[in-house]
Prior knowledge:
Elements: H1 2-9, H2 46-54, H3 60-75
Helix pairs in contact: 1-3
Amino acid sequence: ILRLAAHDFMDYDQNNHADPMGMDGCLDWNSSNNAGLNSIWNEHSALFHLHQNKYSDISRPDFWVMAANAVVHLTSVNQALDLKPTFFWGRIEADECP
Length: 98
């Protein structure tokens, strides 16, 4: 889940004002860099169904960041690392993915 979120924001280009990409809920599923991520996010995965059935009002990129933050929290020592106070809403889901 962390890798899914990270690979979505890694294409961010602050110098491309027309289309900076970044967290938009899109990945190039054919890229070898994203190999295996389709097992985490597909129409049969638990994460996909959780988003569709319970959190569909949240954009896909916001949901991916929230899920990654939850993993960080749950796996940190004594669950001490809480990123919830630093979370912000409003990531726009891309209309089309490459």
